[in-house]
Amino acid sequence: MKNGSRRLPLVALLFLAAAPADALTHEVVVGDPGLYGQGENGFPFSTLPGYYGYPSTRYQQVFASSAFSGTFNIQELVFYASSNADAPILPGTLEIFLSVTDRGVNEISFRPFDDNLGASTRFFAALSGGFSLTGPELVIGGSPFLYDPAQGNLLLDIRFTGVPLGHAGPFFAALSPASVVGGTAMPFSRWHDFGIGFDDQGLVTGFRTYVPEPATFMLVGLGLAGLWMARRRSD
């Protein structure tokens, strides 16, 4: 009987770990997927012009800390397809890093990419391209990155290997100064080596995290209480 009383709480805890549906999604969207600026944009996940004659290797986008109301545990990045969604994502490997930077919006261009990185740079995910989207969103899950906007702006750093000199894929929602309303300040800017490195626009980006529902926390509590009672019985 003692062995059985120990197993029940463990079963409850294992059920909790295998039930991601018991979580609430929290999302911060920087920009507006309904606005496409000077037309939507294909950089960096789908379009690389081959006429520059050299491979593209790096893309960075900085997000103003004011877009976040507080500390946010980033578990997924989201980009919003706007057209040509049936075309495949850029072939090759994309390594994605997140960092807290002291660079401001429109301050990351025309300098070595590594100079924009902060001390807290972390690997987030690696994406193997060549696939087509199955819905309106490109969702990239990765190693959670705890971002504190009080420490600086957020930097997205994407590094490319094995990509072709020319590719045309889907386009994604983007913003430029021409598309924001009433002279509102741009919430982000970008810098890249895809030919001409425009620095006053960028892709609309969603940041998601998952928080267990209160009922799930109750399961944890019941499981731990059961473990404590089972230990007392075995003493």
Architecture overview:
The protein is of the alpha+beta class. Helix 1 packs antiparallel against helix 2. The strands form three sheets. Strands 1, 3, 6, 8 and 12 form a five-stranded antiparallel beta sheet that branches. A five-stranded antiparallel beta sheet has the order 5-4-7-2-10, with no helix packed on it. The protein contains two helices and twelve strands. The chain is globular, with a radius of gyration of 22 Å. The longest helix is centred in the C-terminal third of the chain and has 21 residues. It has two domains: 45 residues; 189 residues, no CATH class.
Layout: helices, strands, pairs:
Elements lengths: L1 H16 L5 E8 L27 E6 L8 E12 L9 E9 L20 E7 L8 E11 L5 E9 L9 E2 L1 E2 L12 E5 L9 E2 L1 E8 L1 H21 L1
Antiparallel strand pairs: 1-12, 2-7, 2-10, 3-6, 3-8, 3-12, 4-5, 4-7, 9-11
Give a short synopsis of this structure.
It is built from two helices and twelve strands; from the N terminus they run αββββββββββββα.
Counted by DSSP, the helix tally is 2
How much strand?
Answer: 25-35%
Number of strands: 12
CA-atom Rg in angstroms:
22 Å
Observed structural traits:
235 residues, alpha+beta, 2 domains, five-stranded antiparallel β-sheet, 2 helices, 12 strands, 16% helix, disordered N terminus
